[in-house]
Amino acid sequence: QRLTVALQEAPHFFLSVDCDISKLNEVRKIINDNNNFKISVNDFVIKASSKALKIVPKANCSWNDSFIRYYQSYDIAVAVAIDDGLITPIIKNVEVKGLEELSSEVKELALRAKENKLSPEEYQGGNFTVSNLGMFGVKNFTAVINPPQSMILAVGMAEKRPVIVNEEVKISEVMTVTLSCDHRAVDGALGSKWLKVFKSLIENPSLMLL
């Protein structure tokens, strides 16, 4: 019902960009090879989404009929497939969590979501949603906004593609992401600004440490 209302009432528009995750995967391999825990690309996506909201605070908002509400928290909802459909557990205060803590919390919430053990406060709310279908081989897609949020990021599968760097062709790992925006709260310029920052963070993961 909520997504039907979102499609009927929220004027969706979509922005796509390709992200070179070669550096990210180098960092991820170092982390995973030297620790007992494993960090996923999606953990970096969640972290970068939070950081981008902090850098572009006007995008951290929701539409509320007669006004726009702006948030000072950075709570990221993560779409998880369950037997009965889809649920979005929320990782709260992502901006203050390291990748290890973030990854552990994502795994724990996803497991409890699939076991139908989440409490309402763990899946209701959030400022922004990440939906990743890359593990299913989906190259790119557009996602329906999760109201009252104003944006959702659809993440596709990473694949090796030829890219031009300094006038030379090289093979890089590229991931296409598509940002869905509610035009009532986030217009094209603001959505593009957020996406540019997100791309910079994903392609230069050391910036997430700042």
The description of the largest β-sheet is:
6 strands, mixed
E-strand count? 10
Q: Give the count of helical stretches.
A: 5
Q: Which series of helices and strands comes N to C?
A: HEHHEEEEEEHEEEH
Oligomer: single chain
The N- and C-terminal alpha carbons lie at a distance of 40 Å
> Percent helix among the residues?
25-40%
Shape: globular
Strand content: 25-35%
**Low-confidence regions:** none
Strand order of the largest sheet: 1-10-9-8-4-7
What radius of gyration results from the CA coordinates? 17 Å
- What's the rounded overall pLDDT mean? 93
Task: Summarize the structure in short.
The protein is of the alpha+beta class and about 210 residues long. It has helices spanning about 1-10, 20-35, 40-55, 100-115, 190-205, and strands at about 10-20, 60-65, 65-70, 75-80, 80, 85, 90, 130, 150-165, 170-180.
Architecture blueprint of SSEs:
Layout: H1 2-9, E1 12-20, H2 22-33, H3 41-55, E2 61-64, E3 67-70, E4 76-78, E5 80-82, E6 85-87, E7 90-91, H4 99-114, E8 128-132, E9 151-165, E10 168-182, H5 188-203
Parallel strand pairs: 4-8, 8-9
Antiparallel strand pairs: 1-10, 2-3, 4-7, 5-6, 9-10
Helix pairs in contact: 3-5
Question: Which labels suit this protein?
Answer:
10 strands; six-stranded mixed β-sheet; 5 helices; 32% helix; 30% strand; 210 residues; globular
How is this structure best described in words?
This protein has 210 residues and is α+β, with helices and mostly antiparallel strands. It is built from five helices and ten strands. Strands 1-10-9-8-4-7 form a six-stranded mixed sheet. It has a two-stranded antiparallel ribbon with strand order 2-3. It has a two-stranded antiparallel sheet with strand order 5-6. Helix 3 (41-55) crosses helix 5. The longest helix has 16 residues, at 99-114. It is globular, with a radius of gyration of 17 Å. The mean pLDDT is 93.
